[in-house]
Amino acid sequence: MTERNDENRRQVLYWRLLARLFSPDEQPALESASMAVVEDLGLPAALLDPTVSVDTVVQRFPALAGELRGLLTTGDDEPAAGPGEAEVRRAALVSKLLLNVFATGSGSVSAGQLARWQSDAGWFEQALGAAPGELRRQGGELGGALAGLEGDLVRRMHLREVLADPTLASRLTPSMSLIEQLLRDKANLSGVALANAKALIRRYVDEVAEVLRTQVEQTSVGTVDRSVPPKRVFRNLDLDRTIWQNLTNWSPTDQRLYVDRLYYRQTARRTTPARLIVVVDQSGSMVDSMVNCTILASIFAGLPKVDVHLIAYDTRALDLTPWVHDPFEVLLRTNLGGGNDGPVAMAMARPKIVEPRNTVLVWISDFYEFDRSQPLFDGIEAVHRSGVRFIPVGSVNSSGQQSVNPWFRQRFKDLGTPVVSGHIRKLVFELKSFLT
Question: Which of 201, 230, 353, 427 places its Cα 20 to 30 Å from the Cα of 295?
């Protein structure tokens, strides 16, 4: 097969992909030409059928799994000699992934269709070198686009009917989009539907908590406390220092190093008892942040010598500190949506500040307060000047998209406390720095 023919075959596959992405109607000429290309490559015809999931293709043809994983991480640069048969094969596999993920159609969506899309999106993420669901959690431009598609599918699904059926509910994979809908609609659920909704929320909370807990543990806390003797266990053995300190005991005759003393690393860290006050805007625009920060607060509440308080607010403020160790219970007590009144939350937070220089106040909001902007900023400025470390957070979401009131953004910058925005890892870093 000539280079020109390989290039034409690849173009056929991509023209067919574009046609199907922009219109559900088949183009007979492109379909038949694409089928001929796929058959000539020895690939299954199911690659061209958007109703067949990637999982199904892989189950029938297991050898394709290895080709799909990492498919989009290499080979982006076209060989100088032009595309060969390997590039045509790659185009066929890429077309399958893109069509299944980005051609979501319209109309109502079943639980099975959502589950299939989530699985296909997971394969697409694996093709990019990520774990299934990782891009949607991390955000960024592509992750945000995937999360948006998933959210649209969830909104098109008759969620209450699905939750009432244990079989259909079991097909759902928890995601931020799904959790948002469950939290908004929980007051209208009861019986089996409510039990299934709680189970999905619990699963999502546990999954996210595991990821965040790892991130928290990977960042060191405090400086090494030299006053605490090192623990004499093998993992703390300082081999380099032990050898160096015992070099005088080297025996040239025996060709051995005789060790008189073992040296261990000191791992105990000096920590300062700290009070962490987390204030979360639970208005409709801050759902993602509410979920993430509720879970994060529970993780920090489990650290030694960290006293965590949690306040959620819209037009009223709610002290959720008694349940801060259990984010699942916190989320069930929230009431997402509505407006916001920051000064009300500040009135609840200020009495919790006992030792200003040993307190951090994290305020998560888009800061659209309208006629209450100046009173809220005055309160924040007073708290900051008292010695409290104030961390304003515009978004800690999975989509990476955020909108913060420019008026507040500039004033926080002038105050020396710029808004933290982006992935939740940024907030983890800021909080861990405070505890150091």
Answer: 353
Smallest Cα–Cα separation from 183: which of 224, 211, 207, 154? 154
Element at 392 (helix H, strand E): strand 389-396
Burial (Cβ within 10 Å: 0-12, 13-18, ≥19) of residue 163: buried
pTM for the model: 0.61
pLDDT tens for 112-152 read 888 889 899 999 999 999 888 888 877 677 887 888 888 88
Supply the pLDDT for residue 229.
66
CA 337 to chain centre: 22
Point out the residues of the chain with pLDDT beneath 50: 1, 76-77, 79-81, 220-221, 270-271, 398-400
Contact 317, 342 (CB under 8 A): no
CA dist., res. 213 & res. 375, Å (int): 36
- 315, burial (CB in 10 Å: exposed 0-12, middle 13-18, buried 19+): exposed
CA count, 13 A, side-chain hemisphere, 261 = 8
Nearest to 355 by CA among 241, 411, 275, 295: 275
User: CA–CA separation, 155 vs 176, rounded Å?
Assistant: 12
User: What are the angstrom distances between the C-alpha of 153 and each of 105, 114, 351?
Assistant: 9, 7, 44
Sign for the CA dihedral angle at 127, 130, 131, 137 comes to negative
Cα separation, 1 vs 35, whole angstroms: 17
DSSP state of 286: G
Q: Which two tokens stand for residue 96?
A: 């399958």
Q: Please give the Cα distance from 320 to 334 (Å, whole number).
A: 9
CA distance 294 to 414: 29
Non-local (6+) Cβ contacts of 206 within 8 A are: none
Question: What crossing angle do the helices spanning 111-127 and 140-155 adopt, rounded to 10°?
Answer: 170
> What pLDDT is recorded for position 100?
92
| Burial bucket for residue 176 (CB in 10 Å: 0-12, 13-18, 19+) | buried
Q: What are the angstrom distances between the C-alpha of 140 and each of 146, 174, 181, 285, 404?
A: 10, 20, 22, 18, 17
Give the per-residue pLDDT at 120: 92
Contacts of 64 (CB under 8 A, 6+ apart): 57, 58, 93
